[in-house]
Design a protein that fits this description.
The structure is a single chain. By secondary structure, the protein is an all-alpha fold. It is rod-shaped. 0% of the residues are buried. The chain folds into 2 domains: 46 residues; 30 residues, no CATH class. Helix content is 87%, strand content 0%.
C-alpha cells in the first residue's frame, strides 16, 4: 500500500513538473513574439523607402495610382 502511495506521489510530482515546463515554454514563446514585434516595429521606423515618401506626399492615393502617374510623367518627358 505504501509503495502505491509513493508511486502516486511520484506521478503527481512528474505531472506538476511537466506542467511547469509547459508554462515556461509558453512564456518563452510569448517573449519571442514580443521580441519579434519590437524588432519589426523598430525596422518600420528606420526603413524609409521611396514608396513611403510618396505616401507621405500623396496620402490619399494608392501605390498603384502613384506609380502609374509617375510612369506617365516619365513617358511624357
Amino acid at each position: 500500500m505504501l509503495i502505491l502511495l509513493l508511486l502516486l506521489l511520484l506521478l503527481i510530482l512528474l505531472l506538476l513538473l511537466l506542467l511547469l515546463l509547459m508554462l515556461l515554454l509558453l512564456l518563452l514563446l510569448l517573449f519571442l513574439l514580443l521580441l519579434d514585434a519590437a524588432i519589426f516595429t523598430y525596422a518600420e521606423k528606420v526603413t524609409i523607402t521611396p514608396c513611403l515618401h510618396m505616401k507621405k506626399l500623396l496620402p490619399h492615393r494608392s501605390t498603384h495610382d502613384i506609380l502609374s502617374t509617375l510612369s506617365r510623367r516619365s513617358l511624357d518627358a
